[in-house]
Protein backbone atom coordinates (compact mmCIF):
# COMPACT_ATOMS: atom_id res chain seq x y z
CA UNK A 1 0.00 0.00 0.00
CA UNK A 2 1.36 3.35 -0.93
CA UNK A 3 1.81 6.16 1.49
CA UNK A 4 -0.94 8.17 -0.25
CA UNK A 5 -3.41 5.29 0.06
CA UNK A 6 -2.49 4.78 3.75
CA UNK A 7 -3.13 8.45 4.52
CA UNK A 8 -6.47 8.22 2.68
CA UNK A 9 -7.52 5.14 4.68
CA UNK A 10 -6.56 6.76 8.00
CA UNK A 11 -8.47 9.93 7.06
CA UNK A 12 -11.55 7.87 6.17
CA UNK A 13 -11.39 6.02 9.49
CA UNK A 14 -11.07 9.28 11.40
CA UNK A 15 -14.06 10.78 9.55
CA UNK A 16 -16.10 7.67 10.35
CA UNK A 17 -15.16 7.91 14.05
CA UNK A 18 -16.08 11.61 14.16
CA UNK A 19 -19.45 10.85 12.57
CA UNK A 20 -20.15 8.05 15.05
CA UNK A 21 -19.16 10.12 18.06
CA UNK A 22 -21.21 13.13 16.98
CA UNK A 23 -24.26 10.89 16.49
CA UNK A 24 -23.93 9.54 20.02
CA UNK A 25 -23.90 12.96 21.64
CA UNK A 26 -22.50 13.88 25.04
CA UNK A 27 -23.35 11.15 27.60
CA UNK A 28 -23.46 13.68 30.45
CA UNK A 29 -26.18 15.76 28.80
CA UNK A 30 -28.19 13.14 26.93
CA UNK A 31 -31.22 12.22 29.07
CA UNK A 32 -32.36 8.62 29.44
CA UNK A 33 -35.67 8.18 27.64
CA UNK A 34 -38.64 7.63 29.99
CA UNK A 35 -39.47 4.41 28.19
CA UNK A 36 -36.34 2.68 29.46
CA UNK A 37 -37.06 -0.42 31.53
CA UNK A 38 -35.00 -1.21 34.64
CA UNK A 39 -32.92 -4.37 34.68
CA UNK A 40 -34.09 -7.19 36.96
CA UNK A 41 -31.99 -7.79 40.10
CA UNK A 42 -29.29 -10.41 39.67
CA UNK A 43 -29.24 -11.65 43.27
CA UNK A 44 -32.04 -13.19 45.27
CA UNK A 45 -32.50 -11.47 48.65
CA UNK A 46 -32.11 -13.70 51.72
CA UNK A 47 -35.15 -13.71 54.02
CA UNK A 48 -34.44 -12.83 57.67
CA UNK A 49 -34.18 -15.77 60.07
CA UNK A 50 -36.67 -15.99 62.87
CA UNK A 51 -34.47 -18.08 65.17
CA UNK A 52 -31.37 -16.57 66.78
CA UNK A 53 -27.98 -18.05 65.99
CA UNK A 54 -26.34 -20.15 68.73
CA UNK A 55 -23.62 -18.39 70.78
CA UNK A 56 -20.07 -19.17 69.69
CA UNK A 57 -18.48 -18.76 73.12
CA UNK A 58 -19.02 -21.12 76.01
CA UNK A 59 -20.00 -19.26 79.19
CA UNK A 60 -17.82 -19.80 82.27
CA UNK A 61 -19.66 -21.68 84.99
CA UNK A 62 -20.21 -19.66 88.17
CA UNK A 63 -18.22 -22.18 90.25
CA UNK A 64 -14.96 -21.53 88.35
CA UNK A 65 -11.96 -20.52 90.46
CA UNK A 66 -11.01 -16.86 89.86
CA UNK A 67 -7.60 -16.20 88.34
CA UNK A 68 -4.95 -14.56 90.53
CA UNK A 69 -4.29 -10.87 89.79
CA UNK A 70 -1.54 -10.29 87.21
CA UNK A 71 -0.58 -6.77 88.25
CA UNK A 72 2.06 -6.26 90.89
CA UNK A 73 1.86 -3.28 93.21
CA UNK A 74 4.25 -0.42 92.56
CA UNK A 75 7.13 -0.04 94.98
CA UNK A 76 6.83 2.93 97.33
CA UNK A 77 8.23 6.21 96.07
CA UNK A 78 11.70 6.57 97.53
CA UNK A 79 12.09 9.41 99.96
CA UNK A 80 15.11 11.65 99.66
CA UNK A 81 17.77 11.08 102.24
CA UNK A 82 18.85 14.46 103.69
CA UNK A 83 22.38 13.05 103.95
CA UNK A 84 22.50 13.07 100.11
CA UNK A 85 22.46 16.87 100.26
CA UNK A 86 19.88 19.43 99.21
CA UNK A 87 18.36 19.53 95.73
CA UNK A 88 19.55 22.11 93.21
CA UNK A 89 16.32 24.13 93.53
CA UNK A 90 16.62 24.13 97.33
CA UNK A 91 20.12 25.63 97.04
CA UNK A 92 19.02 28.27 94.49
CA UNK A 93 16.29 29.43 96.91
CA UNK A 94 19.00 30.34 99.45
CA UNK A 95 20.86 32.75 97.13
CA UNK A 96 20.95 36.44 98.09
CA UNK A 97 18.04 38.52 96.76
CA UNK A 98 18.34 39.60 93.08
CA UNK A 99 21.22 37.20 92.44
CA UNK A 100 21.82 36.79 88.71
CA UNK A 101 22.12 33.09 87.81
CA UNK A 102 24.74 32.16 85.25
CA UNK A 103 22.86 28.97 84.29
CA UNK A 104 26.01 27.25 83.06
CA UNK A 105 26.27 23.49 82.69
CA UNK A 106 29.78 22.05 82.85
CA UNK A 107 31.48 18.69 83.23
CA UNK A 108 34.61 18.59 85.39
CA UNK A 109 37.37 16.13 86.20
CA UNK A 110 40.87 16.22 87.64
CA UNK A 111 43.67 16.93 85.19
CA UNK A 112 45.87 13.85 85.57
CA UNK A 113 48.88 15.66 84.11
CA UNK A 114 48.69 18.57 86.60
CA UNK A 115 47.42 17.46 90.03
CA UNK A 116 46.42 20.95 91.15
CA UNK A 117 44.30 21.64 88.01
CA UNK A 118 40.87 20.50 86.85
CA UNK A 119 39.47 20.14 83.34
CA UNK A 120 36.21 22.05 82.72
CA UNK A 121 34.08 21.17 79.67
CA UNK A 122 31.30 23.67 78.95
CA UNK A 123 28.03 22.02 77.88
CA UNK A 124 25.57 24.94 77.83
CA UNK A 125 24.76 28.37 79.22
CA UNK A 126 26.27 31.82 79.52
CA UNK A 127 29.31 32.31 81.70
CA UNK A 128 29.26 35.18 84.19
CA UNK A 129 32.78 35.29 85.59
CA UNK A 130 33.89 31.91 86.90
CA UNK A 131 32.34 28.61 85.76
CA UNK A 132 31.57 28.10 89.46
CA UNK A 133 29.13 31.02 89.68
CA UNK A 134 25.62 31.11 91.20
CA UNK A 135 23.32 28.67 89.43
CA UNK A 136 25.97 26.63 87.67
CA UNK A 137 25.30 22.91 87.26
CA UNK A 138 28.54 20.98 87.60
CA UNK A 139 28.72 17.25 86.88
CA UNK A 140 31.84 15.31 87.84
CA UNK A 141 32.59 13.00 84.91
CA UNK A 142 35.61 11.67 86.73
CA UNK A 143 36.98 12.00 90.23
CA UNK A 144 37.60 15.70 90.91
CA UNK A 145 39.03 17.78 93.75
CA UNK A 146 37.64 21.29 94.17
CA UNK A 147 38.88 23.56 96.98
CA UNK A 148 40.54 20.59 98.66
CA UNK A 149 37.38 18.45 98.70
CA UNK A 150 37.19 15.32 96.55
CA UNK A 151 34.02 14.29 94.66
CA UNK A 152 33.38 10.97 92.92
CA UNK A 153 32.40 10.60 89.25
CA UNK A 154 28.68 11.26 88.80
CA UNK A 155 28.51 13.81 91.61
CA UNK A 156 26.19 16.77 90.97
CA UNK A 157 27.62 20.03 92.29
CA UNK A 158 26.65 23.70 92.44
CA UNK A 159 27.64 26.89 94.25
CA UNK A 160 25.91 27.56 97.58
CA UNK A 161 24.81 31.00 98.86
CA UNK A 162 28.41 31.68 99.97
CA UNK A 163 29.88 30.73 96.58
CA UNK A 164 31.27 27.43 97.90
CA UNK A 165 30.91 24.28 95.78
CA UNK A 166 28.56 21.74 97.37
CA UNK A 167 27.08 18.42 96.33
CA UNK A 168 23.35 18.32 95.47
CA UNK A 169 21.11 15.28 95.35
CA UNK A 170 19.32 16.14 92.07
CA UNK A 171 18.83 18.81 89.40
CA UNK A 172 15.09 19.24 90.14
Automatic annotation (TrEMBL):
<protein>
    <recommendedName>
        <fullName>DUF5666 domain-containing protein</fullName>
    </recommendedName>
</protein>
<feature type="region of interest" description="Disordered">
    <location>
        <begin position="28"/>
        <end position="87"/>
    </location>
</feature>
<keyword id="KW-0732">Signal</keyword>
<feature type="compositionally biased region" description="Pro residues">
    <location>
        <begin position="30"/>
        <end position="79"/>
    </location>
</feature>
<feature type="signal peptide">
    <location>
        <begin position="1"/>
        <end position="23"/>
    </location>
</feature>
Amino acid sequence: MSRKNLVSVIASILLLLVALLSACGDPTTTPVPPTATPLPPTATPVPPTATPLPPTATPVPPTATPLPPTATPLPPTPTRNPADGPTYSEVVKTYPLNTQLCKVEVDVQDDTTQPDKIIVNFKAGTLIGSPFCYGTKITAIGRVTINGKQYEAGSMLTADKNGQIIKVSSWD
